[in-house]
Amino acid sequence: MGKYDRNFTDELRERLSIVDVVGRRVPLVKKGQNYWGCCPFHNEKTPSFSVNEDKGFYHCFGCGEHGDIISFIMKSENVDFKTAITELAAQAGLKMPDYKPKPAAQVEREESYYQIMETACDIYQKKLYEPEGNIALNYIRNRGFTDDMIKKYRIGYAPKNNIIANKFINAKQDNLLSTGMCRRGEYGMYDFFRDKLMFPIFNAHGQIVAFSGRSLDGSEPKYINTSDTELFHKRKTIFGFNFARDAIHRANRSIVVEGQIDAIQMQCHGFPETVAPLGTALTEDHIAILCKANRNIVFCFDGDAAGQKAAARACDIVMQFLRDTSEVKFAFVSGGKDPDEILKTAGESAMHKIIDDAIPLVDFLWNITNSGFNVSTPGGRSQAEKFLKQKLDKITDIDLRSEYEHEYNSRKFNQWHKWKKTSQNSIKIELPQIDDITKNTVIFIVNNYPEIAERYGDFLANLDIDFDSNVPEMVMDEKAAEKYIVSLKLQKYIERLQKEKKDLTTKLLSGEDTKKELVEIEEKINDAQQKMDTLISI
Question: pTM, whole model, 2 decimals?
Answer without folding.
Answer: 0.65
